[in-house]
Design goal:
The chain has helices spanning 2-12, 14-40, 68-107; strands at residues 48-51, 57-61. With 108 residues, it is mainly alpha-helical. Strands 1-2 form a two-stranded antiparallel ribbon. A hairpin with a 5-residue loop joins strand 1 (48-51) and strand 2 (57-61). The longest helix is centred in the C-terminal third of the chain and has 40 residues, at 68-107. The chain starts with a helix and ends with a helix.
């Protein structure tokens, strides 16, 4: 019964929770916008964007904003390819170490 009363209390507070989450999201978006604007001021920067690892655009500052979503998607693809390359490199280095150990054994 106690859990039921707690659930009802949470439901009563839903508008307050939604307002809190909305305020936090607005604050986060403002912070991201400020960081992107600061990055763009560094010089030589034509476009800035933040995106999720899945390639979903969060925010962008670009002259041609129609390309922002494509940039986000391509960046995620490049990140995935780089991670795969590094993982593959780790396996290659491990195999090289094993081969070096075998050669040492043979040369004894």
């Amino acid at each position: 019964m106690k859990i039921f009363h707690q659930a009802l209390q949470v439901l009563d507070d839903v508008p307050a929770v939604v307002a809190l989450v909305k305020d936090k999201l607005i604050t986060d978006v403002d912070m991201i916008d400020k960081i992107l604007a600061d990055l763009q001021k560094t010089g030589g920067m034509e476009a800035c964007a933040t995106a999720s690892r899945d390639g979903l655009l969060v925010r962008a500052i670009m002259q041609n904003e129609q390309y922002a979503e494509s940039l986000a998607a391509m960046s995620a693809t490049m990140l995935g390819a780089a991670e795969a390359a590094v993982a593959g490199l780790g396996l290659i280095l491990l195999e090289l170490e094993k081969s070096a150990e075998k050669l040492k054994e043979l040369l004894k």
